[in-house]
Design a protein that fits this description.
Elements: E1 5-9, E2 14-20, E3 25-27, E4 31-35, E5 42-44, E6 47-50, E7 53-55, E8 57-59, E9 63-69, E10 81-83, E11 89-99, E12 110-111, E13 115-120, E14 123-131, E15 137-138, E16 143-156, E17 161-166, E18 169-180
Antiparallel strand pairs: 1-2, 2-9, 3-8, 4-5, 4-10, 6-7, 6-9, 11-16, 11-18, 12-15, 13-14, 13-17, 14-16, 17-18
Length: about 180
């Protein structure tokens, strides 16, 4: 589940995180790992709410609120992912295939070393781009393979789509093709 909002409830005894479950299921008592932005903490789920009603279980494609212990306060933030421990890793480097739209749709030239703003689920992270060897520039309406080095690790998987911005403008989309270390 990607964390979309975090609420400190009950005077610090409970933290409520909201988001959509992407796959599998979650139940009260399950342990979840906070992945991304230097997470790594494993916590038990104290409650599962769907439309402000407590439920025993929530499944994929449901929007939920998960109650976590108060010690999660400050550890969990928008853009992180809650997952079964060890099932998803946080990465700061990856290779991707990107596509740039036309100039009139925000496309801009991308060169090696440029810092872009990457959007993965609800996470927003800056990163530097390295073009494939022999490529000087990617122009609007073109695509190519790039290597990205993010400023902070985020929950990533091969095949995951993302978008990116360049100088404050929507500049393109991409698919993670390989995770690197």
């Amino acid at each position: 589940m990607c964390v979309e909002d975090v609420f400190d409830t009950h005077q610090g005894r409970t933290v409520l995180v909201t988001g959509r479950i992407e796959r599998e299921r979650v139940r009260e008592g399950d342990e979840v790992e906070i992945v991304g932005f230097h997470g790594g903490t494993v916590l038990p789920v104290e409650g599962v709410d769907v439309y402000r009603r407590r439920v025993a279980e929530a499944r994929a494609d449901m929007n939920v609120g998960l109650s976590l212990p108060g010690k999660a306060s400050g550890s969990v933030a928008r853009g992180q992912v809650l997952a079964a421990p060890g099932s998803v890793g946080a990465h700061a480097r990856f290779t991707a295939d990107i596509a740039l739209p036309a100039d009139d749709h925000g496309g801009a030239e991308v060169r090696t070393g440029e810092r872009l703003q990457f959007h993965f689920r609800a996470a927003v992270v800056r990163g530097a781009v390295t073009l494939a060897p022999g490529t000087d520039v990617l122009r609007p309406l073109h695509g190519g393979t790039v290597t990205v080095a993010l400023e902070q690790p985020v929950a990533l998987e091969e095949g995951q789509p993302f978008a990116f911005r360049h100088h404050g403008r929507a500049a393109g989309t991409g698919i993670v093709t390989r995770l690197t270390h």
